From TrEMBL:
Organism: Massilia aerilata
Residue interval(s) of motif TonB box: 33-39
TonB-dependent receptor plug domain span: 51-151
Cited CDD domains: ligand_gated_channel (cd01347)
PROSITE patterns linked: TONB_DEPENDENT_REC_1 (PS00430), TONB_DEPENDENT_REC_3 (PS52016)
Bilayer disposition of the protein: Multi-pass membrane protein
Annotated protein name in UniProt: TonB-dependent receptor plug domain-containing protein
Keywords: Cell outer membrane, Ion transport, Membrane, Receptor, Signal, TonB box, Transmembrane, Transmembrane beta strand, Transport
Keyword Ion transport: yes
InterPro entries: Beta-barrel_TonB, Beta-barrel_TonB_sf, Plug_dom, Plug_dom_sf, TonB-dep_rcpt-like, TonB_box_CS
Residue ranges of every copy of the TonB-dependent receptor-like beta-barrel domain listed in the record: 213-589
Leader sequence segment: 1-27
Record's subcellular location: Cell outer membrane
Keyword Ion transport recorded: yes
């Protein structure tokens, strides 16, 4: 890897990753967390081979009025780009992979636009989320197309226990206002019914999405409003047999700049997902899950009062999945059949109004033998772009209860988007899927109550789709399979508890590089790090978050440099009764001026306060 880290930049990284383990810590990290995304079946986190992290409901509660993307960028291996405030267009990079090289799921339902291939992060409501699982590395052998950098799965709140009610109201800088309420519970008896329903509204006056220097600059504030509702209802038909419905619907209206025009330029975006599911324990060792799901992504842009100033793109994904899991004397075998239909229902360019179907079959085997762990996966996807076979193999060895090493290999691919295939003057119907080959090695070590983890990865991508000019098959520019890229890096993290303070730190050293041009991939730094410290008293908790990122380039030619930055956030929560609590949060305490994208605004020093009732 061609890393060039200065001594000044390396010092805080080394302090986080090397000095922290020698603090005399006293509490072992929790090892009873259960995750499902890494293997598509519930599994203890400390038995999972792929690098996985979980954002808990407590972390989400402390996020205040931030967006899902703001929450994600505090995690290792993740960077974001946003064209303005929380309601603006947002991209999420996972281990240097593009936003459209990451699969995003909400309760198992794939979301995103078929025209861009990326999820609509700015329209995803934070208040509806219970927890998030992030799995790093290629997972096409389990999830098919686009899982090159990893998978992010969002889980909304579930229904269980006695009926209860929760609500919150908050306000903060830039005219931010936030309200949400929910109810959940379950009935007893042989045919029990569980339910959860919540609704939320978030809005803010915002700040100018652009800065002087941008051709679109307008100094007016660009605010947003987001309304959402989600729910889940499930009934136990008989012991071991459950049927239910789950849904999420969110609507966003976000302003943006398009020069000095007096018209209120804005986007209106809707995302929704619906799923019917049937879970059956057919035999003591055979579990079956049947799911029918649909997700929609609608985006309207309005730049003037005239009809020509409006554009609309509506896309839909429909999926049918049948997953069977077999317990084979402690081992696990999974067999999966999938059918997915992608449609562009309407577009300002009628050439995009198409559909395609992908049929899939996959199998995975998880073996546990004493100190040995082995995961194998194989999948075949058949679509209009041809057939793609992907596979993965991971091995782990536990030297002791406190020391484990892992190694894995895997292949992946990204299907061309509708824009890359059919957009007039840009797409080529002959474009092929991008392909990835990843090798990875990891080490996890517990010492004196601290848990250290390091993962090295090398993900080589071929047939990268980029804009070329001139186009090989016609005049002008077009999307074309021509580039190669290398996503290589080392991620280090540590969690510990010392003197009553919970500490978590991570550092990423990476080299996301376009091998065809030799340039650093746009808007991705070669180093970034985070540190979180929290201390809990009887009824209160105090915490600090530090985020640091090195410099990046705003363009593929590496001509426009974006400077590095460091952000300090502080928060406190106070539970003054069993049901009532207060959150106070101060972000960007040092009022750092920085850019995630050239000439686009970012949040200055800001505050948020929320009063909450009930248990999240």
């Amino acid at each position: 890897m061609r890393f060039s880290v200065s001594r000044q930049a390396a010092a805080p990284l080394l302090a986080i990753t090397l000095a922290t383990p020698f603090i005399p810590a006293f509490a072992d990290p929790a090892i009873d967390t259960v995750v499902v995304t890494a293997t598509r079946t519930p599994q203890r986190a400390d038995e999972v081979i792929p690098d996985t992290t979980v954002i808990t409901s407590e972390e989400i509660a402390r996020a205040g009025a931030g967006s899902v993307a703001d929450l994600l960028r505090r995690q290792r291996g993740i960077e974001i780009v946003r064209n303005g405030g929380p309601g603006a267009s947002t991209s999420v990079f996972l281990r240097g992979a593009n936003s459209n090289q990451v699969v995003v799921l909400i309760d198992g339902v794939r979301i995103g636009s078929s025209t861009t291939g990326a999820a609509s992060w700015n329209a995803t409501p934070l208040s509806s989320i219970d927890h998030i699982e992030i799995v790093y590395g290629p997972l096409s052998a389990l999830y098919g197309a686009d899982a090159i950098g990893g998978v992010v799965q969002i889980f909304t709140r579930k229904s269980e226990g006695t009926p209860s009610f929760s609500a919150s109201a908050g306000a903060g800088s830039y005219g931010a206002r936030q309200y949400d309420a929910g109810v959940h519970g379950a009935t007893g008896g042989e045919h029990s019914l569980s339910y959860a329903l919540s609704a939320a509204r978030e809005d803010a006056d915002g700040f100018s999405s652009t800065r002087p220097g941008s051709s679109s600059y307008n100094k007016d504030d660009d605010g947003y409003a987001r309304n959402s509702v989600n729910g889940r209802v499930a009934v136990q038909l008989a012991p071991g047999h459950e049927a239910g419905l789950q849904f999420l619907k969110s609507r966003l209206r976000a302003q943006y700049d398009s020069g000095a025009a007096s018209y209120d330029t804005h986007n209106e975006q809707d995302i929704d997902s619906y799923v019917l599911f049937l879970n059956d324990r057919i035999l003591p060792n055979w579990r079956s899950s049947l799911q029918a799901a649909r997700s929609n992504d609608r985006l309207g842009s309005f730049t003037s009062a005239a009809a020509s100033g409006a554009s609309q793109i509506d896309t839909r994904q429909t999926e049918f999945t049948w997953q069977n899991s077999f317990d084979l004397n402690g081992d696990s075998l999974q067999v999966l059949l999938g059918h997915r239909k992608e449609e562009v229902l309407s577009s300002s360019s009628t050439a995009l109004n198409r559909s395609r179907i992908t049929n899939s079959v996959a199998a995975a085997y998880d073996l546990r033998r004493g100190s040995h762990l082995l995961d194998l996966g194989l999948r075949r996807d058949q679509s209009v772009y041809g057939g793609k076979t992907t596979g993965a193999a991971g091995y782990g060895y536990e030297f002791s209860r406190d020391l484990r090493a892992t190694a894995s290999v895997g292949t992946s691919f990204r299907a061309p988007t509708y824009n890359e295939l059919y957009y007039p003057g840009y797409g080529l119907p002959t474009n092929k899927p991008e392909q990835g080959r990843n090798v990875e090695a990891g080490l996890r070590y517990r010492i004196a109550g601290a848990e250290l983890q390091a993962n090295y990865y090398r993900n080589r991508l071929t047939d990268m789709l980029v804009t070329v000019n001139p186009c090989p098959s016609r005049t002008g520019s077009c999307a074309y399979n021509v580039n190669r890229a290398l996503l290589e890096g080392l991620t280090m993290s540590v969690e510990t508890r010392a003197y009553g303070i919970d500490l978590r730190a991570s550092a990423d050293l990476q080299d996301p590089r376009d091998e065809t041009t030799g340039k650093q991939l746009a808007r991705r730094s070669r180093r970034h790090a985070s540190l979180t410290a929290a201390h809990a008293l009887d009824r209160a908790e105090f915490g600090a978050e530090l985020q640091a990122s090195g410099s990046r380039f705003d363009d593929a030619a590496n001509a426009n440099r974006l400077g590095g930055y460091g952000l300090l956030n502080l928060y406190t929560t106070w539970r003054f009764t069993a049901d009532w609590s207060l959150l106070l949060r101060l972000d960007n305490v040092l009022d750092k001026r920085y850019e995630l994208a050239r000439y686009y605004g970012t949040t200055e020093r800001s505050w948020f306060a929320a009063l909450r009732y009930g248990i999240r």
